[in-house]
Amino acid sequence: MTNKYRRARKKRKKWWPYLLSFFLLVVLGSGIGAYLAKPSLFSGLQFWKAKKTAVTTPSSSKKKKEKSDLPAVSTKDWQLILVNRDNVKPELNPQLTDVDAIKVDSRIVEPTRQFLEAARKIAPEETLISGYRSVAEQTELYNERVAQLEASGLSHEEAEKQVQTQVQVPGASEHQTGLAIDMSVEAGQSDELGLQLAAIAPQYGFVLRYPDGKSNITGVNFENWHFRYVGVENAQYMAKHQLVLEEYIQLLKKAGK
Fold first, then answer.
1. How many Cα atoms sit within 13 Å of 26 on the Cβ side?
2. 223 has catalytic annotation
3. Residue-wise pLDDT tens digits, 160-203
4. Active-site position among 66, 223, 233, 246
5. pTM above 0.85, yes or no
6. pLDDT at position 239 over 70
7. Cα-based angle 194, 141, 244 (whole degrees, multiple of 5)
8. CA separation (Å) from 48 to 34, 43, 59, 61, 160?
9. Three-class SS of residue 172?
């Protein structure tokens, strides 16, 4: 081997360390670059995730615009006055007018007449048997019923407990509002007939006030003859959703009405 060949070979060997160093620098630089790029990549993913969520999730303002089927009424409206054992009222002294020899609040005279006329098309003997009753009259009725049960052998406490399933204590009866009517036939109303009347009642603004299966809410057992005026819009909503007045008032309060 000549000296010239040895010198050329030694010269080529000197490049390998430089090439190796350059390669290592490239690899190291790529790793550092990928590491530094992670936060921005992560941020980008978060942005698209947030964007997707914003598109698929309805905004709160849109939810507020959704219309409720609750009538545009207030719990303070006169026809929605709530009278029961939890809402005892003093004498209300409403202005009264006779309908079929029964007194009712003058504001519901026409709806009462129309309802009675419609009821008589179903049962000609249908008649109004009770309307407005003062607190004084309710007190007399209540005490009379209690006395009758006491005479049968019940204690005063037992008699009151039994009476209160059908007769409200003084101050807790809807009859003192003039907005409640009792409608029946002379021989006594069958449940079937009572339900037929309940079905047409909302057309005239009335509801069956003490329906079957709601005594745990109203505090009064099923009465197929007792109807309460609440206004057509309210009555139709209550009938559609099978609500008694206590439930309806609570629903309106939750809605801020």
1. 6
2. yes
3. 999 988 889 999 999 999 999 999 999 999 999 999 999 999 99
4. 223
5. no
6. yes
7. 40
8. 21, 9, 18, 23, 69
9. coil
